[in-house]
Design brief:
heterodimer; A: mainly alpha; Sodium/glucose cotransporter; 20 helices; B: mainly alpha; elongated
């Protein structure tokens, strides 16, 4: 049997097992919108952990981190920097978000904006930002899946058909199982990913250099400039590091799917406890970086850094092992993509389409529209993944800089009584405009600063100034508060 | 909303200073520690130390009574 058949059949088997776990999780439960999106708020520490890990450890962990270590060098350290810090931010805001979610029966991030600011247009704008920012993120997962199948088939299957097959499975998976299925499929994925990361992160440097220490000694000898910032780049220095770490660590839980994952918990305490210990799970990240650095010396001429991890696995291990790594990688692309699609589709139907275009829709119709949107959004991301080619990290940063603009509205909404609807609306609009202008014109980083960070600072300033000059308004979170100040 | 305890905010600030703001102090290869370049060693170390800071913050938050609540939700 040829190597590509062995590797591909094992990869497919793992994908099938993961999907089955998802399909079976729905049995015995009535699937209404509440169950489909937030699992009726019944998740304990373990499932919330798995769900959050399912969203956090994506293809990006797997291929993107090693890819940047390979092509850029030390700037990849920003990933090791923001991972623990985003949980520090989560520690302070998620329990408060959960509490409001519980009281107001919130299902999406835009629901939060609706409940706090009582303004349909602000919540629709927040939904739109979330849905658009999610497209590059889903595109990232698709591109990752394409790379996996291409390498696991030893080049026999092209990236495009591979992406089409994989995303048919993802869309079907989201359709049938909802969030509970996704959390259970994460069990298999996380076990595999942990095993794969720890094993290859240690074995590959050992195989070529006799250990992680000797590997670093060799890199420090051959390419010392690669190991300190800005590495092999010109503009990713310390200023970029600081601004990117700050932007991503506040941005992380502004991803609509990560924000809404907190609604699935049974209590705020569960979220806070998770936030304390989650950084320990990030220990897989440096291991992926080690693999990328090993590949730099062993396979110096790859066209694309994102290929480095799988190429070196293929060169080092037998085909069946490549199949397992490919399967773990495929699940790390499919499951986060499923969560992202589920969230984006629900938010589009519930917070954008119904309130702005068709106020007469019933909950049932919203559910149906959300499922239809899963297909539409998947096709959109598929189109982007086929039509454009950008590195995985670049895609991730693009989406982050968009969702990070929601941060002032969330954090001030939770802890300040002075912030107003107009302030948040103005700040968000200006933040998105600046971010889009800088990023789309290729000016990220701008003068060494991360573009999303610049936009976020202006966003905060505008939110604060406009809030101070507009009339004090009651928070929608106070019980029995009248619906005032809802007009823009 | 109940605002976080000032002590836990300060504990949360420690990892931000160590990991983010002080980058120019620790972004170097030598001295290597446990075979890792110093910058890698530093950041991996903080993956382990951050939970320690936040565990103390957790402890602080949990033992603070809700009566400190400054309006908003009652």
């Amino acid at each position: 049997m040829s190597s590509s058949i062995v590797a591909l059949s094992i990869t497919s088997l793992i994908v099938a097992l993961g999907s089955l776990a998802g399909f079976f999780a729905r049995f015995g439960r009535k699937m209404d919108l509440e169950q489909w999106t937030v699992a009726a708020r019944g998740f304990g520490t373990m499932l919330v952990w798995l769900l959050m890990a399912g969203e956090i450890y994506t293809t990006f962990t797997f291929l993107g981190a090693s890819g940047w270590a390979y092509s850029r060098g030390a700037p990849v350290l920003y990933i090791l920097g923001y991972q623990p810090l985003m949980y520090v931010v989560a520690f302070f805001i998620l329990p408060a978000v959960w509490e409001i979610g519980q009281k107001r029966k919130l299902q999406t991030q835009a629901d939060f904006f609706q409940a706090r600011y009582q303004n349909t247009y602000l919540s629709a704008l927040a939904a739109m930002v979330g849905v658009i920012a999610m497209l590059p993120y889903v595109q990232l997962q698709l591109t990752g899946l394409g790379i996996i199948v291409e390498i696991a088939s030893y080049g026999a299957i092209n990236r495009t058909p591979a992406m089409i097959i994989a995303f048919t499975i993802v869309a079907a998976f989201v359709f049938v199982s909802g969030i509970r299925g996704v959390a259970w499929a994460s069990v298999l994925k996380d076990l595999l990913l942990l095993f794969a990361a720890v094993f290859i992160g240690i074995a590959i440097p050992y195989h070529y250099f006799g250990g992680i220490g000797p590997m670093f000694a060799a890199v420090a000898h051959a390419k010392p400039q690669h190991l300190v910032m800005p590495g092999s780049t010109k503009n990713l220095g310390h200023t970029w590091y600081v601004t990117s770490v700050l932007m991503t660590s506040v941005g992380f839980f502004m991803w609509p799917q990560n924000f809404a994952a907190s609604f699935t918990a049974k209590s705020g305490k569960i979220l806070r406890r998770n936030a304390v210990f989650m950084p320990l799970y990030s220990i897989t990240m440096p291991l992926m970086v080690f693999v990328g650095l090993t590949a730099l010396l062993v396979l110096p001429h790859l066209s694309n850094g994102d290929l480095s991890l799988l190429t070196i696995v293929r060169q080092t291990f037998p085909a069946w092992f490549l199949g397992i790594i490919g399967g773990a990688g495929a699940l790390t692309a499919m499951i986060p993509a499923a969560i992202q699609l589920l969230t984006a589709a629900t938010m589009f139907a519930k917070n954008l389409y119904r309130p702005v275009i068709a106020p007469g829709m019933t909950d049932r119709q919203v559910g149906t529209l959300a499922k239809a949107m899963v297909v539409v959004l998947t096709l959109g991301a598929l189109y982007l993944a086929i039509a454009t080619s950008v590195s995985l990290v670049a895609l991730l940063l693009l989406g982050y800089s968009g969702v990070a603009q929601l941060f002032p509205g969330v954090v001030l909404g939770l802890f300040s009584k002075r912030v107003t609807t107009r302030g948040v609306f103005a700040g968000l609009a200006v933040g998105i405009a600046i971010d889009a202008a800088l990023t789309l014109s290729g000016r990220d980083p701008y003068r060494g600063l991360n573009a999303g960070f610049i936009a976020l600072c202006v966003n905060f300033a505008v939110t604060a100034i406009v809030s101070l000059v507009t009339r004090v308004q009651a928070s929608g979170l106070e019980e029995g508060s009248p619906s005032v100040g809802t007009s823009i | 909303m109940k605002r976080p305890h000032i002590g836990s905010l300060l504990l949360g600030l420690i990892p931000f200073i160590a990991i983010c703001l002080t980058v120019s102090l620790w972004d170097r290869i030598y001295p290597m520690v446990f075979g890792l370049p110093f910058n890698f060693f530093w950041l991996i170390g903080w993956l382990l130390l951050t939970p320690l800071c936040m565990w103390s913050a957790y402890w602080l938050e949990e033992r603070t009574p809700a009566s400190r609540d400054e309006g908003g939700e009652r």
